[in-house]
Amino acid sequence: MNPRIVVLGAGFGGLELSTVLSEALGDHLDLTLIDKNDSFFFGFSKFDVMFGHKTPDAIRLSYSNIVKSGVRFRQETITSIDPETRRVTTNNGTYEADVLVVALGADYDLAATPGLSEGGNEFYSFAGAERLREVLPTFSKGRAIVGVTSAPFKCPPAPSEAALLLHDYLTTRGVRDACEISLVIPFGAPIPPSPATSKALVAAFAERGITFLPNRRVRALDPARRVAILDDEREMPYDLFLGIPKHRVPDVVAASGMAENGWIPVNPKNLKTRFPGVYAVGDVTSVGTAKAGTFSEGAARVVAASLLAEVQGGEQPPAYAGAGTCYVEFGGGRVGRVDVDFLSGPSPTGSFIEPSVALVGEKQHFGSSRRARWFGL
Ligand SMILES: Cc1cc2nc3c(=O)[nH]c(=O)nc-3n(C[C@H](O)[C@H](O)[C@H](O)COP(=O)(O)OP(=O)(O)OC[C@H]3O[C@@H](n4cnc5c(N)ncnc54)[C@H](O)[C@@H]3O)c2cc1C
Question: N or C: which end of the chain has fewer CB within 10 A?
Fold first, then answer.
């Protein structure tokens, strides 16, 4: 009998896993894919929404488009996971799995940063990006801070991209000279595994008059005085705060007992958890890569290959390399590219391709190829 595969979360990891298995097994697959939302959107499309380049509806990819042999999509909220019995409960029923894959991503903990909800904005959630779409046009002079509150956080280039795109946005509106932009990140460089990418970003900040504060995080906001308080107690006045909130596992994962030190530990070679028959991929894990869709997807491919080897009797795949490609918005209509390999060597390495217009097209292809494979659109 075909194993009953239950995939929790239809993000980068869950969608890629379901697609690869469906392509390989067709009707012999018995896979249930569960997500609480009715649609998927790429993380980077939040920039399009917040800066008003695209409407929220234009970037949504409805799960109703998933028509794949052997895959049943269920829009339900997962309310409990028992990793010992591989039983999952949702607001609508119970699922028993032979193989369970947890791909539930990372949630945000705004309350961990005092003052952030009352006195700032965040652009990491879809709702936050939608709100900023209304807020940004009201900002025409004063001090803007793009500030990271905690690590790890998704897509390490995203705060740098936000600062550079904010520069473009204010320039286009003719108000850049009346505004200051600062970027606060907890690392010594924007992209630690790639010194060349970091150097190019730091140069881009300098060219645009963006103040860069490395090795610092924003610990709190004081909305009454409109100051951001850094972890060294320095105070930075602001008129616009664009925050990257603290990340954490979804509540249902925390309650399952699968997380240790905040995230689900996995064997980095094969993404197995300590529970037999239970895998975890992507942002929800502490696998040792950055948290980004490109890595979630790569991990899902390894799990898919491993399951196929079990079902079809082939060889197990090579160990997960934790390698992926990130496209980095440099502003001015140009995109750079960084290829990072976190796990195959003794320490992470990254190589950089200079920003260009050609890479804008490559990034668009990254999105459109996944839209086609995952949603048939
Ligand atoms: C501004 C920004 C820009 C980014 N740019 C890039 C980029 O250029 N390249 C890149 O690779 N990555 C980028 N990312 C990061 C990327 O979006 C994430 O790292 C990626 O989505 C993680 O994939 P995942 O499958 O692990 O989790 P997710 O894609 O987050 O999927 C998790 C899914 O689980 C579902 N879920 C959670 N809890 C429940 C529950 N209780 N019940 C049911 N469903 C639930 C969620 O609805 C979600 O669909 C960016 C992120 C941001 C915020």
Answer: N
